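User: Please fill in residues for this 234-position structure.
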């Protein structure tokens, strides 16, 4: 088991919180066994496939972080319906630009993309998505951020995690949602509300709900977003 899976999926509250996104995805793809195609950005080891109905076609793309995609290749190397691609830039996904998938998925991925490349990936997803894009991202502002940050600093179980370094001022700004004043790095400086604004340039946003508190995204640990592409796909 790689260190990411060992940290987040071994058990306890972390396992519960990080399984929320897969259960949310399964809820919105239920009753579609072998009837849909799916593109997943940031697939890692394709854990999502354990939760959702089997697609007729699946393409998973990942940067290769911690060897997750190699684990997936070993698991699914005999399967004809699945294709895995290692890509560290949106340009490396250009072979799929003119292909169409019923659904696209990005689970806990977009918060890791630098602002300089985010729009390129969203434009790509709007081109390949036929019906809906399903996204989950963490809530990293407000009281939820403050609680998360204190847990990351104080609890021994998080010592092996990559803990973003915040100054005291940045902690205050992040808590207040003034993320434009926080140096952006990975999840540091991430604001799901900013993502929603940028996403709205390419998609019509249909659903924004909290995980686990559906009606209270601002008090949840993650949010789920469902959007439909503005551009008509041929």
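Assistant: Residues filled in for all 234 positions:
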């Amino acid at each position: 088991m790689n260190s990411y899976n060992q940290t987040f999926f071994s058990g306890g509250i972390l396992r519960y919180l990080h399984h929320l996104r897969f259960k949310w995805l399964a809820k919105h793809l239920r009753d579609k066994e072998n009837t849909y195609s799916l593109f997943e950005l940031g697939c890692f080891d394709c854990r999502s496939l354990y939760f959702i109905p089997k697609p007729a076609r699946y393409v998973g793309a990942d940067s290769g972080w911690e060897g997750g995609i190699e684990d997936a290749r070993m698991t699914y190397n005999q399967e004809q319906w699945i294709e895995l691609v290692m890509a560290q830039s949106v340009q490396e996904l250009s072979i799929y630009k003119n292909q169409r998938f019923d659904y696209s998925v990005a689970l806990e991925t977009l918060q890791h993309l630098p602002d300089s490349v985010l729009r390129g990936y969203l434009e790509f997803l709007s081109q390949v998505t036929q019906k809906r894009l399903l996204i989950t991202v963490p809530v990293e502002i407000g009281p939820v951020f403050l609680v998360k940050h204190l847990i990351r600093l104080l609890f021994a179980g998080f010592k092996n995690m990559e803990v973003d370094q915040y100054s005291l001022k940045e902690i205050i700004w992040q808590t207040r949602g003034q993320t434009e004043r926080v140096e952006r790095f990975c999840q540091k400086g991430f604001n799901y509300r900013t993502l929603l604004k940028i996403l709205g340039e390419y998609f019509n946003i249909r659903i924004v709900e909290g995980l686990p508190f559906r009606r209270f995204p601002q008090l949840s640990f993650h949010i789920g977003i469902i959007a439909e592409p503005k551009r008509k796909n041929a």
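For context: Strands lie at 37-41, 57-62, 82-86, 101-107, 129-138, 203-211, 222-229.
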